[in-house]
Amino acid sequence: QKEVEQDPGPLSVPEGAIVSLNCTYSNSAFQYFMWYRQYSRKGPELLMYTYSSGNKEDGRFTAQVDKSSKYISLFIRDSQPSDSATYLCAMSEGGTSYGKLTFGQGTILTVHP
Amino acid sequence: IAGITQAPTSQILAAGRRMTLRCTQDMRHNAMYWYRQDLGLGLRLIHYSNTAGTTGKGEVPDGYSVSRANTDDFPLTLASAVPSQTSVYFCASSDSGGIATDTQYFGPGTRLTVL
């Protein structure tokens, strides 16, 4: 079993929909949780970052972390065609594993007009 | 500011050949990383360097080597390529020596096919 599991989709939604993307993980030492967005044939770019449990909001994006359930989510409100991309969750233990991220498989999202 | 550049953009390589993928950053970041991305497996860390002169092994280091002679360059070498090394390779960098909270900035990737 992989340390981080992410449903690869693909996920197709109409413009304006609320999108929910999720990852589960098995390593209880993970403390830092990130979401990256990757457009086709481009490198990933950091979308949001959270530390430990809780919620973080940035515009139309909300990241949630539930460490007790080892489950993280990314919600996209009022989704736009420009949100069409692959979304990757990533996690790190911190400490002596500085900078070493473990990624999920990525979820392919298409928002159609 | 270019950020991170990778070369070549794509390459088809015969099995058994030696290949070096180049990565250069102009952000004066301390830490640099090499990942491979495969369908269904996501991004996996190959090697990393927290500062010039030091390197470390990631999740899938076998068959790959790296060097970090200066801050800006972090080449990845496949000594004798095998078909299982067919993948998209991404170089990344971050500012403060690899602290977990640092943003990692990714290059555009190199698509490598080993036949």
Write the element-wise H/E pattern of chain A from the N-terminal end onward: EEEEEEEEEEE
- Chain pair forming the biggest interface: A-B, 29 and 30 residues
Q: Which class do the helix and strand fractions of chain A yield? A: mainly beta
Instruction: Give the integer mean of the pLDDT values of chain B.
Output: 92
Q: Which shape of chain A, going by the Cα principal axes?
A: globular
N-to-C span of chain B: 36 Å
Helical region count of chain B?
Answer: 0
Overall spatial form of chain B: globular
Write the SSE topology.
The complex is a heterodimer of chains A (113) and B (115).
Chain A: E1 4-6, E2 11-14, E3 19-25, E4 32-38, E5 45-51, E6 54-58, E7 61-66, E8 71-76, E9 85-92, E10 102-103, E11 107-112
Parallel strand pairs in A: 2-11
Antiparallel strand pairs in A: 1-3, 3-8, 4-5, 4-9, 6-7, 7-8, 9-10, 9-11
Chain B: E1 4-7, E2 10-13, E3 19-25, E4 31-38, E5 42-49, E6 56-57, E7 64-66, E8 76-78, E9 87-94, E10 105-106, E11 110-114
Parallel strand pairs in B: 2-11
Antiparallel strand pairs in B: 1-3, 3-8, 4-5, 4-9, 5-6, 7-8, 9-10, 9-11
Descriptive report:
- Chain A is mostly beta strands and 113 residues long.
- In chain A, 0% of the residues lie in helices and 54% in strands.
- In chain A, a hairpin with a 2-residue loop joins strand 6 and strand 7.
- The mean pLDDT of chain A is 91.
- With 115 residues, chain B is mainly beta.
- Chain B is built from no helices and eleven strands.
- In chain B, a hairpin with a 6-residue loop joins strand 5 and strand 6.
- The interface between A and B is medium-sized, with 29 and 30 residues.
Task: Give a concise summary.
Chain A has strands spanning 4-6, 11-14, 19-25, 32-38, 45-51, 54-58, 61-66, 71-76, 85-92, 102-103, 107-112. With 113 residues, chain A is mainly beta.
